[in-house]
Amino acid sequence: xxxxxxxQNVISISDLTTPQLELLLHTALDLKxxxxxxxxxGRLIGSCFFEPSTRTRLSFETAVQRLGGKVIGxxxxxxxxxxKGETLADTARIISSYTDAIIQRHPKDGAxxxxxxxxxxxxxxxxxxxxxxxxxxxxxxxxxxETQGTLSNLKIAMCGDLKYGRTVHSLxxxxxxxxxxxxxxxxxxxxxxxxxxxxxxxxxxxxxxxSSLEEAIEWADILYMTRVQRERFDEQEFAKIQGKFNLHAxxxxxxxxxxxxxxxxxxxxxxxxxxxxxxxxxxxxxATNGVYARMxxxxxxxxxxx
Amino acid sequence: MEKKQYSVEAIESGTVIDHIPAGQGLAILRQxxxxxxxxxxxxxxxxxxxxxxxxxxxxxxxxxxxxxASNRLxxxxxxxxxxxxxxxxxxxxxxxxxxxTISEVFRCPNPNCASHGEPVKSRFYVKSAGGQTKLKCHYxxxxxxxxxxxxx
Lengths: 306, 152
Ligand SMILES: [Zn+2]
Fold this sequence. Notes:
The structure holds two protein chains of two kinds.
Chain A: H1 18-33, E1 44-49, H2 54-66, E2 70-74, H3 88-98, E3 101-106, H4 111-118, E4 123-128, H5 134-148, E5 155-159, H6 166-175, E6 181-185, H7 194-202, E7 207-209, H8 213-219, E8 222-225, H9 235-241, E9 260-262, H10 283-302
Chain B: H1 2-5, E1 14-21, H2 25-31, E2 41-49, E3 53-61, H3 67-76, E4 81-86, E5 89-95, E6 101-103, E7 106-107, E8 123-129, E9 132-137, E10 143-145, E11 150-151
Antiparallel strand pairs in B: 1-3, 1-4, 2-3, 4-5, 6-8, 7-11, 8-9, 9-10
The structure holds zinc ion.
Catalytic activity (chain A): carbamoyl phosphate + L-aspartate = N-carbamoyl-L-aspartate + phosphate + H(+)
EC number (chain A): 2.1.3.2
Family (chain A): Belongs to the aspartate/ornithine carbamoyltransferase superfamily. ATCase family.
């Protein structure tokens, strides 16, 4: 029987069933433990980046090449025919006639789904506007599972810009399936949007707003840090919150042993470099896991069995 | 019997939208562009209703609602019934039901939605939560309250 992801698109975490997500997760960890260089042998993958995102692109292209596949594509939409007004529908028809799968990054919300409707090969969404970035969420899940041995009933603290942070939204939406509990630490103006908390309510997941990072550190199994951008505030406002959402090693005294700190990277000053050498820091391993998460996606959509 | 059923003038052929929640008749007339030259429209406001106390009613002569129009109507007045009239008689009585998805009728209000400018039909998933109807775009996955979504 083919695996349930064979020839499927990976557009949105919400399209994936829990067994599909668990299959992806375990495949990623298997590929990390036992590297395979043959799973994409003879395959050509289209890497279509209509806006630059060097880290995501390199992570995907590394995944393809580590599995023995080849990549064609572009890294910046400015040089493509889209600038001349070509539709995504036409781009899909053409690139899918050349390749075995398409990885797409695009500034418009929903671009991956439009592309998939006209593509004859599977489409992987590498970020569509402010909407979805499923491989990022998968790598977060892989990392949480790897560090905790489970995804169920964990205490997840999220800190920083929870209003605009696509990664924390998707992660909360994914983790609600495993009944995790959440704590949100953010400036009031950057609080978690209600449509996310409503979804947590519907799923029966508990959440709370915490006023200090120290409180969250004592409570959490996972601390997911994101950056509060100065541009979102005027000077006076920023002075009030400055430093409140920055993490230093000295704050970690009461952390549980199993606490791991994650961050989608790049970081600026929200995690001080003195945290890097503590046993809690896990953001660099998290970035490495991005390659394994993407290897899992590619292997499963292009092979009946892995 | 017939006369008792409608307290506004009977029509020979056309559509009677009945059981519109009182006060919504005017909004529906506007939303659905039901006013066409040549088609007589009769409206009744705050008529007595057995089930809801009072109701609005719209009669349009010479027009039959297609599926799209019925879907649209369901979104705004799911309790309404649509009666198809031929030769002064009700030949079909349709109860509206909120559709699971609605296509082609509305345009996604998100200006950054990839559905604009592509050869695709708009598509929304209809959800009702806490007495409110919400539409989630199939493409950009953003959710809008019904009032926010406009005609395509
Ligand atoms: Zn949309």
